[in-house]
Each structure stands twice: as structure tokens, then as C-alpha cells.
Amino acid sequence: MPKSILITQCLQNDFVELLQKYDPIPNLLHVGFEEAKRLLSEKAEEGPIDSVMEWAYLCSEEDLEIIHIRDWHDPKDQDQKQHLKYFGDHCLKNTKGAEFVFEKKILPSRKHSIVNASGLNDFLNTNLERILTPFKNEKIKVGIIGVWTEAKIFFLAYDLITRYPNFEVVTCSALTASSSRAMHFIALDQLHDILGVKIFSSIGAFTHHLTNSMPKLTGNIHGDKSLEKLLFEPGYEIKDTDKKILSYLFRDCKTVELECLDGGFSGNLVLKAKGHDVLGHIQVPTVVKVGERNSIARERNSFERIQEVLGNNAPNIVDFAELEDRGGIKYRYAAMLDGDVKTFQKLYAKSEDIEKIHKILEIVFLNQLGRLYEAARSEKLNLLHYYDFQNKYASSIRKNIESLIGKKANGEKIEILKGEFIPNICNFYERDLDSLREYNSVSHYMSYVHGDLNGANIIIDSQENVWIIDYFHTHRGHILKDLVKLENDILYIFTKIENEEDLKEGFRLTDILINCPDLGIPVTNERVSEFKNPFIIKALNTIVKLRQFYPSLIQSDRDPYQLYVPIVRYAMHTLSFDESSDLQKQWALYTGSLCSKKIQEYLKKSKELRVDFLNLSKLEPNKIGITILPGRKDRNRNLKDDIQTIRENNIQSVLCLMTMN
Q1: What is the mean pLDDT of residues 457-471?
Q2: What average pLDDT does the segment 51-73 reach?
Q3: 3-state secondary structure of 422
Q4: CB–CB of 475/448 below 8 Å?
Q5: Which CATH number applies to 4-211?
Q6: Taking the chain, what is the end-to-end CA distance rounded to the nearest angstrom?
């Protein structure tokens, strides 16, 4: 009895045949040029589908059962005429359109089953149930690949799960498609959330899950000669597996010049590549990222979710490859020119032109990521949960803090400098997090975000075109996440702190940046004269620019609590950075500790009705305050408790302000 089953769904020419870019689609069911190219690659024999089918037919029959479900129509059948009239003729039996796109990979000597289906239900009037009967009571893994994700794939998964509860149904985002990229990913989310289908981003992880084996990379990548074409900078060394992946990604090149853009904080390689083809032509520059297989697959999956929104501001995925436990992606940028390419972090360190820095930030947050932020919606969001505040991190945070200050972090205060005390944030993680929670789930603006925007993920080419790389953490999340993350890195990585005097200036800058009662009123640089350190001044002027993006993003959601939470999250993470100096980490500790206190105060006050009083000193003793409607059920408030708070504030009269609608 096979350990697993692989089911292909509608992988036929009329659904996924690779067309020329501007060719008309043959019928309404074809997934279109972009999705077909994603499944098949520009060279089908080297693409994901052919690679997986070659792997499947090389697996033993004891390990893997292969079932191909194909659309199969008879134009003479009266029951099918309405379907064919609506979608157009497609997959007519015994025609080229009905052939599998992987026809050449089928091994006649290897057992497989074919199911001819003419409707949305693959069990209706087909032999699928008979084929699966021997496995009915078996605990068996079933992998589904093919098209359309929101229709045939989803319906088949539902049928399998409801008919065969012992089946473990899985699929792979790189091996399924729809005519709409957006619908493809929505359907994948529904498969996971509604049906419990496990979704793999990595092809290798998907096949390994089924049979503990992976597809092989095609082409000659194992000989020494194929690796000689990779030309690295002097002294630059990488793993043999990574070299083989690079060799595969540039298999059409005679030589490839590779320049390191960033070593990555997680062991990933980010390389700028300039290839020379066999005729000596210089190819368009590309950027290659190589890293842990599942991480690279997840980055590809995350990027594909937003690629169509970013348009020409985003790169194109030219190719990707997986070998053993490593993976690689090859990106091509629409207008990246050859020459000097630098990261934003390096440019920031060398440039004193603050206007140039501001211009880059405008391109990043308005022209590029702004396209994602435009679709933001206000949704209920628990910020402590979203930013992963858990006391399981308490021990590592204590360890980092005690290593930094050189003594035990006991008591309610920590002496960070002689005579300078701050709240002991160890207590916040070890003791207070258990009792603190967001009592009234408040709405905040959410959109797709980059998720890990740092100075190494923004690159600038020789013509000052600006590009963003590394989409591994891209997701739908808190709209300020990218801005706060970059602000953190500007302060505690980019800004040089060389002595105690510099550190005290850093503390003063923090005091300015975190004491902002209204995020709709951006921080200004009017207090710049208080600072002597040019790096602090530069940081202030840069962050003033970043904060100017806030009002249009958060709109009426202006409470600074949504700033304090990510500030603490990233400041505490900074304590584990190798590239931050001890003085920079002390600064991060100062900021995080003060903001943790603000979080505590906010959450404790959130239990009570908040009344904001106007500053009307000339009218004393009269007192005018404003608050939300007491007892609001959508905020989980208690009317009696809120009225009691109003009385405790010595308020005798209440005026209700009603909106026109």
C-alpha cells in the first residue's frame, strides 16, 4: 500500500499552456500568461510542474500513488453544451487542449490513474471513488496540485476531507494557480482556515512530506566546471550547496560576477549578479538571495501576494531553486542599472545630504510601500499579541540586560548611568505581562506591510533608483510596523554613540520622540539646537521625516499607545544585535524601559472611562471634558462603572454630541 497519493488537477493545455505574453487566452478557464509562467517557467522542461512530475514518476509505486484528474468534454453530450457555451470550448476529448502539459514526463511503464471529469465534482460520474476505495480506511497523505485554487482544488479538497476523514490533505502554493493571483492566495487561506489543509510554500518540503524525497535540479550543476563560472569577490566563501544553487540559477551563463550586498542577519546571502551569456553579452543585473529552503520559499510566497500591487516598483522573480535544505531566488529589477549598488544603511552612513535621505524615504513609503498602505482598513487588533509580547522571552531579556549593565537587574529601577535610573523592564516581562491585557479591543489601521524593513533591505543603484528586497516577513499587519522598525534601526544601529555624553544626548532625543500625546501631530526638529552630536542631529531630522508619514496612515487613530508597543518590541530585540554597540544598546534599553511604563499606564487606565479635560485655566473653576459614550457595548464597557468614573471627576452635567447620520 503506497504511503502517499499525488493528485494533479486540470494540468492541461487549455488551462495552463504557456502562451506568449499578449496572446489571447484560448478560453475563459485558462489561468493566463503570468500564472502559467509561474507554474511552468519560461522553459517548461525546467519549471516547477515538470520538475515535480519527473520526481513523481521516479518514486516507487510502493511510496506514491499518482492520480491525474483531467477536464474531459464531449461536445456532442447535451448535458455539457451549456457549460461549453459559457466557458468556451476547452479540453475536448482527444484534442491538444485536453493533453497534459507534462505529457513528456509521463513514463508509460510507471503505474498511474486517469480520471475524466466534466464538472466541478470530480466524484460525479467518474472512477475516482473506485480508485480511492482501497485507501478508504488508511491514514495516508494526499497532495493536490493544479488549477483553479478557488474552484477545482478547493472542491476536491473538501470532498476528500469529508469522504475520507483519515486522509491528510496538503497542497503547495507554488504548484497551484488561478487566473487571479489575489483569488489564488485567498483560496489558499480558506483551504487552511476552513478545511485545515496544510499549505507548503516550498516544493521540496511538499514532496518531502509525501515521500521523504525531493525533485532534482536539472542541468549540469554538480561538476567542478559548472561551478567555475561563479566569480566571487576575493576571499568570499560560500557553501557548496549554495554554489550549486547559484550555478543552476545562472545555467544559461558562461560566467557570473557576484557581489555581496548583505550577509543577512539570519545566514542568508544577498548577492548582486552580472551574468555573461555564451555569446559574451552582458545580461541585465539581477539580485539573488540564497538561504534556508523553507524561509526562501516563504519569502517567494509572501512576495507573490503583493507583486501585482507594487507593479514596476517590485522586482520580478526570474527563477527559483531548492537543493537539500537550501533555496535560492533570482530577482530582476525593471530599471536597475549596472554600477555601484549600495544599501540604504551604507548610503546613510556616508551621506550628509539630508534632503537626499528624505527623498529616498518618500520613494519607499509613498511611491512603493504606499501602494500597499493605500488599501488599509481599520480593524480590531490586539497590539500586544500582534507584536508577540510573551513572558517566555523574559529570561533572554534579563540575560541581555544584565550582561549590558554588568550586574543583576533587581528591584523596581535600573541604574543605567551613574545617577540615571529607569524602570526595570525585566519586571514588565516577568511579572506584569501576565496581568496586563488590552481590555477593550481597539481598532487600528492594517494593510500589507514589508514586515522587516531595515537599512539592508533598501538598495539604491548608480542612478539612484530605489528598490526594496527581502519580503520574507511580508503580511497583513499594523500599518506603522515598517516605519517604527526603520526608526529603531536608525537610532540604535545607524547613529554612532561614542561616549557617555553622546548617550545622554540620545536619552534626550528619546524623551522628545516618545512624549507625543497625539500621533496626528508629527514631531518637529525645533529643539535641534539642544544637540551637539551631528549623528544625533541627523537621526532627529530623519525621524522627523518618518513621523510625517503617520497622519495620513493612522487618520483618526492617533493614540500613541500603538507607537509604544512596537518601540518596546524592537528596542528589546536590539539588545541581541551584534552590530549595535553597548552604548547603542544602553540607549535602546532606556527607550524600551520608558515605553514599557507608558504601556502599563495606558492599559491600567483603559479599565476606566477616559475623560480628557480642556485646558481652560482662565475659566476656572469650570471644568469641561470630553469622552466616548459611557457603556458602549462595542468597547465592552460597563455603564454603571463609567457613570461612577464621571461622578468621581466631579462632573454634574453631561451633553451628548450626535453625528448627523
Answers
A1: 88
A2: 95
A3: strand
A4: yes
A5: 3.40.50.850
A6: 67
In this predicted model, what pLDDT tens digit does every residue of 472-523 receive, in sequence order? 999 999 999 999 999 999 999 999 999 999 999 999 999 999 999 999 999 9
Extents of the domains making up the chain: 4-211, 224-339, 343-605, 608-661
CB-side neighbour CA atoms (13 Å) of 271: 30
The alpha carbon of 249 is separated from its chain's Cα centroid by a whole number of angstroms, namely 23
Q: How far apart are CA 490 and CA 523, in angstroms?
A: 16
Cis, bond preceding 621 (omega within 30 deg of 0): yes
Query: Nearest to residue 108, comparing CAs of 76, 141, 66?
Result: 66
Report the pLDDT value the prediction gives residue 222, as an integer from 0 to 100: 47
Q: What is the pLDDT of residue 385?
A: 93
What are 543's three cell numbers?
525621524
Q: State the cell numbers at 75.
A: 461536445
What distance in Å separates the CA atoms of residue 581 and residue 584, rounded to the nearest whole number? 5
C-alpha cell at 623: 471644568
β-strand partners of 253: 277
Nearest to 285 by CA among 41, 459, 38: 459
Give dist(CA 634, CA 441) in Å, integer.
Answer: 9
Residue 617 has a pLDDT of 65
User: Which CATH number fits the domain 224-339, given the four candidates 3.40.710.10, 1.20.120.450, 3.30.200.20, 3.40.190.10?
Assistant: 3.30.200.20
pLDDT in tens, 135-185: 999 999 999 999 999 999 999 999 999 999 999 999 999 999 998 888 999
pLDDT at 242: 92
Instruction: Report how far residue 593's alpha carbon sits from residue 405's, in angstroms, rounded to the nearest whole number.
Output: 14
Residue 616 in this model has a pLDDT that exceeds 90? no
Mean pLDDT of the chain: 90
Q: In what order do the strands lie in the sheet with 443-449?
A: 377-380, 443-449, 475-478
**Cα 525 to the center of its chain, rounded Å:** 33
Q: Look up the pTM and report it.
A: 0.82
Given this chain, do its domains 4-211 and 343-605 carry the same CATH topology? no
SS3 assignment for 502-550: HHHHHHHHHHHHHCCCCCCCCCCCCCHHHCCCHHHHHHHHHHHHHHCCH
Cell 502554493 belongs to 173
Rg over CA atoms, the chain: 29
Which of 366, 365, 372, 364 minimizes the C-alpha distance to 309? 372
> What letter represents residue 467's amino acid?
W
User: DSSP readout, 298-321?
Assistant: HHHHHHHHHHHHHGGGS-EEEEEE
For 355-393, give one letter per residue: b (16+ CB within 10 A) or e: eebbebbbbbbeebbbbbbeebeeeebebbebbebeeee
According to the model, what pLDDT value does residue 603 have?
A: 87
CA distance 251 to 272: 16
Say which CATH architecture domain 343-605 belongs to: Alpha-Beta Complex (3.90)
Distance CA 575, CA 513 (A): 20
Q: Which of 556, 554, 559, 564 is nearest to 436 (CA)?
A: 564
- CA geometry: angle at 360 spanning 355 and 366, to 5°? 115
Q: How many residues does the chain have?
A: 661
Instruction: Say how far residue 270 (Cα) sits from the centre of its chain.
Output: 17
Neighbours of 223 (CB within 10 A): 9
